[in-house]
Design brief:
The complex is a heterodimer of chains A (100) and B (549). By secondary structure, chain A is an all-alpha fold. Chain A has four helices and no strands. Chain B has 20 helices and 20 strands. Chain B has helices spanning 29-32, 35-55, 57-61, 93-104, 120-127, 129-136, 166-172, 205-208, 216-222, 262-272, 281-288, 317-322, 348-356, 362-375, 379-382, 413-417, 447-457, 470-491, 514-517, 531-539; strands spanning 4-9, 65-70, 110-114, 140-142, 148-152, 161-165, 176-181, 183-187, 191-193, 231-241, 249-259, 297-299, 326-330, 387-391, 395-397, 400-404, 410-411, 422-426, 439-441, 522-524. In chain B, strands 1, 2, 3, 4, 7, 8, 9, 10, 11 and 12 form a ten-stranded mixed β-sheet that branches. In chain B, strands 13-14-18-19 form a four-stranded parallel β-sheet. In chain B, helix 18 (470-491) packs antiparallel against helix 20. The longest helix of chain B has 22 residues, at 470-491. Chain B is globular and about 65 Å long. Classes of the chains: A mainly alpha (100), B alpha/beta (549). The interface between A and B is medium-sized, with 24 and 31 residues.
């Protein structure tokens, strides 16, 4: 749900950028957004998408459009679900008793 | 096939990573290289190999069609509730995957089938079962989206008429073998839910609510006349205790239990959970009907890991502690309830007996829903909420109907009306008190409607409220409704019988010949629906619940 909200905000930002460009000839916000997303695509978005299991074109598309709102949650999940053998050692704290 | 049960111990590892949802890298070498995955696969394989050594089950399965059914209820990672662990309600997808991997060596024709009674498509995606199906290139069917077939079960005590999805018809006719892959867990309705109770998931929603009452044990064992698991694999790595299908609590067991007779598997597992098998009604009924096997051989270590007993009651200390201002007023006239002759003789213990006279019905459903609300984030806001729950038609004393509170104090219907709290009347039999209730829930054992109304009455947000999954759940609901409706409109095939669970009566079937009475099941074709019948059939499909508003 939060990601949908973030996507919606990003789309609104794109609309604002294009609006300013077309009506006010103000291009800097658009350049900044494209620049940031391009940077993210090259250095992190595609890498994260591929590591997660998405294909190349999808990763490029999603990062260019949505930026960190797309790749950051994937990155967090990858980090949370990348384990070493040490993570599977049973410890006393693993025992869970219900909430009463 | 010889009956055997094999108990296999898994290595003592931390299995708490991904026991509810498959990880992002499922299907890749990194997944299969994980220590827990290797241990789970080795344990499952060993158990099935040992079972084959004792029974030769693999020769039965070689080259045959197979339907494998997990136990998919809610899929609730820890973010959905205020607990700090994932809820162990659903068959561990890692275990399920290992079983399919094993079966794939025996046959290519495997179908995964499930009907969670809710939004199976959504929960299958959340758990990762869809990715398992994709990895093995096998179909995943959602029972509630399939057209139904109709059967009579002449020998059945309660469930004489049964509607099942077409995939199950293949199993009934012996064309497809059935593998039950349940979770080792308790259940508020039946004590435990294991190998053969897993078949509840094959029933369409409206079919489930017939006799979803004190007769639920008989109803479920009656299904064994139609089909039984040919192989049962119990996921006992991390079990679940508590008031399931409400949110439950993990119990480390470290076992995989396999067997060729589901009733005997369930008996062994119930014992391993620390329960008296002679007191579990499901097992008692199944044994009485001859579905057990006294010649079963059990291999492996039957260590007992005590599970917390479920509490199908609103009168327990735990419930009163959790919900101090939620009060039950109960009165029953059925033959199982104590007969009251003197109002002053009604003690709290007698009230508990009255309440328990319809175990498996509305009280258990209320208990489940309240468990969901207890685990929800909204609990902090509504734990002091005042609510009166009225159940039953009242106990008759000197010609007057009375309902009793937790202390044994008697109330007439007028006195109930004077209680100044929000009042919810539950169940068709509570109709005599309907007019004094703020809201009234129809149906006899209808769970969805009860859950929604109760949550609204409590001003609670039901659990599983991780906002991340709301779009997926919504999409699943819409998809389910559209697919079911389309099947009716286009093909003239219904996916649901008409909802008719307004009492705990035994739904009758026509008189049968002496020869037919000896059969386990009789197929009764359902003709294609006419145009007017299709319009009627669309009403049987519920988006949420039958009587929501």
């Amino acid at each position: 749900m939060k990601q949908l909200f973030d996507f919606a905000v990003t789309i609104i930002l794109w609309i604002v950028c294009f609006y300013l460009w077309i009506t006010k000839k103000f291009t800097y916000l658009l350049y900044a957004l494209v620049g940031c997303h391009l940077f993210e695509t090259v250095f992190i978005g595609v890498k994260t998408g591929l590591k997660y299991g998405k294909n190349l074109y999808y990763s490029i598309f999603m990062t260019m459009i949505f930026g960190f709102t797309w790749w950051l949650p994937l990155r967090k999940q990858i980090k949370a679900e990348t384990f070493t053998d040490d993570d599977f050692i049973r410890r006393d704290t693993d025992y869970v008793k219900g909430a009463n | 096939m010889k009956s055997a049960v094999v108990i296999t111990e898994a290595p003592a590892l931390n299995y708490f990573h991904n026991y509810v949802q498959l990880p992002f890298d499922y299907g890749r070498p990194s997944y299969f290289a994980r220590k827990d995955i290797k241990a789970i696969r080795d344990t499952v394989y060993k158990s099935l190999d040992d079972l084959d050594e004792k029974t030769g089950w693999k020769s039965t399965f070689k080259g045959r069609k197979v339907l494998i059914k997990p136990n998919l209820v809610f899929v609730t990672p820890k973010t959905s509730y205020r607990y700090d662990y994932d809820i162990p309600q659903t068959t561990d997808p890692r275990v399920f995957e290992a079983v399919i991997s094993y079966l794939k060596d025996l046959t290519d024709d495997i179908v995964i089938g499930e009907g969670s009674g809710l939004v199976t498509w959504t929960y299958a995606k959340m758990a990762g079962y869809d990715r398992i199906a994709e990895f093995y290139r096998i179909p995943l069917v959602y029972f509630e989206e399939q057209a139904i077939d109709r059967y009579f079960a002449p020998k059945a005590e309660v469930g004489k008429e049964v509607f099942v999805p077409k995939s199950i018809s293949e199993v009934i006719r012996g064309e497809r073998l059935y593998v039950s892959c349940p979770k080792m867990k308790t259940n508020i309705y039946t004590g435990v839910t294991l190998g053969f109770k897993n078949a509840m998931g094959t029933l369409s929603c409206n079919m489930r609510y017939r006799n979803h009452t004190w007769q639920i044990d008989k109803k479920l064992t009656d299904l064994l006349y139609l089909f039984k698991p040919d192989l049962t694999v119990v996921d006992g790595l991390i079990g679940g205790e508590g008031n399931t299908p409400g949110p439950n609590f993990p119990v480390i067991v470290d076992k995989i239990i396999t067997g060729t007779n589901s009733v005997e598997v369930d008996r062994v597992v119930t014992e391993m959970m620390g329960f008296d098998t002679t007191k579990n009604k499901l097992l008692v009924e199944a044994t009485a009907k001859g579905f057990g096997d006294t010649n079963v051989e059990v291999y492996g270590n039957r260590t007992v890991t005590p599970f917390m007993k479920p509490e199908p009651t609103l009168l327990s200390d735990r419930f009163k502690n959790n919900w101090p201002n939620v009060k039950l007023y109960v009165g029953h006239q059925n033959s199982r309830a104590p007969q009251i002759t003197n109002l002053n003789s009604v003690t709290p213990e007698v009230v508990k007996e009255i309440e328990a006279s319809c175990a498996g019905g509305c009280i258990a459903s209320i208990g489940t829903t309240m468990e969901v609300l207890f685990a929800s984030y909204s609990y902090y806001f509504n734990k002091k909420r005042k609510l009166s729950i009225i159940v039953g038609p009242g106990s008759i004393v000197n010609g007057v109907s009375y309902w009793f509170d937790e202390n044994g104090k008697a109330y007439t219907v007028e006195e109930l009306g004077n209680i100044k709290t929000f009042k919810i009347g539950v169940g068709e039999c509570t109709s005599p008190a309907k007019d004094v209730c703020t809201t009234f829930v129809r149906g006899c054992g209808e769970v969805n409607n009860l859950a929604i109304r109760l949550a609204l009455s409590m001003l609670g947000i039901p659990g599983q409220f991780d906002p991340k999954y709301v779009p997926l759940i919504t999409a699943g609901l819409v998809r389910k409704y559209c697919v079911k409706s389309w099947r009716v409109i286009k093909d003239g095939e219904s996916t649901e019988p008409v909802f008719d669970a307004f009492s705990d009566k035994i739904f009758p079937i026509p008189e049968l010949s002496k020869e037919d009475m000896k059969k386990d099941w009789i197929y009764v074709p359902i003709p294609k629906l006419s145009i007017s019948e299709r319009a009627e059939a669309l009403k049987s499909i519920r988006f949420l619940a039958n009587f929501l508003f």
